[in-house]
Amino acid sequence: MHAVNPWVAVAYLVAGVLFILALRGLSSPATSRTGNRLGMLGMLIAVVTTLVTHVPLGGVGGAHGPSIPFEGDFVDLVTAGEIVIAIIIGGTIGFITARRIQMTAMPQLVAAFHSLVGMAAVLVAIAAFLNPGAFAILGADGNILTVSRVEMSLGAAIGAITFSGSVIAFAKLNGNMSGAPIILPARHVINLGTLAAIVILTALFAGSAHAGPGENNLFWIVVAAAFAIGFLLIIPIGGADMPVVVSMLNSYSGWAAAAMGFTLHNTAMIITGALVGSSGAILSYIMCRAMNRSFISVIAGGFGADSSSAGGPAKEQRPYKRGSAEDAAFLLKQAENVIIIPGYGMAVAQAQFVLRDMADMLKEHGVNVKYAIHPVAGRMPGHMNVLLAEANVPYDEVYELEDINHEFAQCDVAFVIGANDVVNPAAKTDKASPIYGMPVFDVAKAKTVMFIKRSMTGVGYSGVDNEVFYLDQTMMLLADAKKMVEEINKSLAD
Amino acid sequence: MDFISILSIFVLACFVGYYVVWSVTPALHTPLMSVTNAISSVIVVGALIASAAAGAGGSKWFGLVAVALASVNIFGGFAVTARMLAMYKKKERPAPKTGGH
Q1: CA-to-CA distance for B50 and A134, rounded, in angstroms?
Q2: Which of B14, B35, B36 to mutate to test binding with chain A, by most A CBs within 10 Å of its CB?
Q3: Torsion from C-alpha of A442, A445, A447, A450, nearest 10 degrees
Q4: Which of B69, B73, B78, B98 to mutate to test the interface with A (most CBs of A within 10 A)?
Q5: Which of B42, B2, B77, B7 is nearest to A50 (CA)?
Q6: Using one digit for the tens of pLDDT, what is the confidence trace for B1-41?
Q7: ipTM of this complex
Q8: Is A421 a catalytic residue?
Q9: Which of A29, A42, A84, A349: disulfide with A482, CB 3.0–4.6 Å?
């Protein structure tokens, strides 16, 4: 059935190229919107090509001509109708969700979407297993082709891992489940054993002489084991490592699509799978580097399990300077350069909108305002940039860690809002600290450091105290982030 | 297509992916994830083939459910990406004082 008509193969190739261009567009915000449209066009071409070649409408006839002969592939209007209904149901749910979702909930949404791709891959693999004739992977001996058996097992297994892993990631990010890691005894043995079982069973399935349509139960065991391993792999991983997990599952959803592309000999699926797979892998790497954690240690899990007593009760007595909104407003107005360092606490307090107002007022006073974003500032790669963009912060005022870190020495006020670990010098000095080695902002070089924090007791995600709180040039602004910024704005307006 | 041609396409596409993704600006990493999510739903091709195929009744229903799931992703993924990208704006007016870059 494959490549009966060369134009079909060309159409899938065009779709694959359009997907590459969709990602290429993301190299700058200016070209990104066109890129997204090219991606949509690619998907449309892939879907229409498949429909045209596989759903000859009964009665209409002639439209496809004799060039695409499909024995036993003739489907009536009922089937076409069923497909359209499935697309409408799914499309409506997807579209409405995409319109309504809060930008702060983006990590959960992406995790949920990954789980759907994973499940779709599993279902397609099952369909190929039950009806290999439709996918042209049935051998002359009545068995499914050996190489296809490996491909479909891989596709189903990776899809199943993506599904169950993403469901757990979603539950942790959405708060349906505690973000704390759940540690099973001997989990490494269980995980490695299950992985080995998947590999061995796949090999046995490939080597089996009994592999007709739906015939060999080994396939089902592989799928069940893969569902289990996805679940087991993600439950021991703590909330702080979720950005890595979401990126990793992104990668897996790509490899699952690629494996199914091998089964179907479909270039669009293979190209896309490779793109998505590399994309997720690179994002995982970037996130790991930003936290100075090795990928293996993230996957092994357990980070943040032991309630670290770092900092200790004695340190709570240390003196610090507390400032008021008026003090802060006065200093900010006098400043020449201000760098704002937002953390996830800002998003939780929904302070990004009033923060933008503050920056606007400062600009009217002739202050040069920049935003500095740490790669792990949000709950997924690039999350903080989206949250600031939503508050209409121009993207050319937002800088990445390595682009702005040298500017703190010339900066009058470093304004830290809802962040802690990413400005903690312990990452550079204290080898015992859980965040040691993580790249951080050198805020202590600024003339004044302002910290908006709810209270002195709550410390960052890693539970580490921060030396910067107690420096001479540091002013602690203890309040809810949104209320504090609103008060600063009031003082600035006077 | 034989296995080796398919494998060649796959390996070359991995390299293309590597270079294209590194050129994505970090500010757009979240839209990158949502758009890769949308395009990985190209798995819908397999789902459509299963739905349209005659024979083995069960496989058709697995296919249809997969079409619905992938459609959630296609529409949801592209729509949410478009919504995010629409928010990225440049400075509308020059700031009173521009510090060089």
Answers
A1: 7
A2: B36
A3: 20
A4: B69
A5: B42
A6: 788 999 999 999 999 999 999 999 999 999 999 999 999 99
A7: 0.90
A8: yes
A9: A349
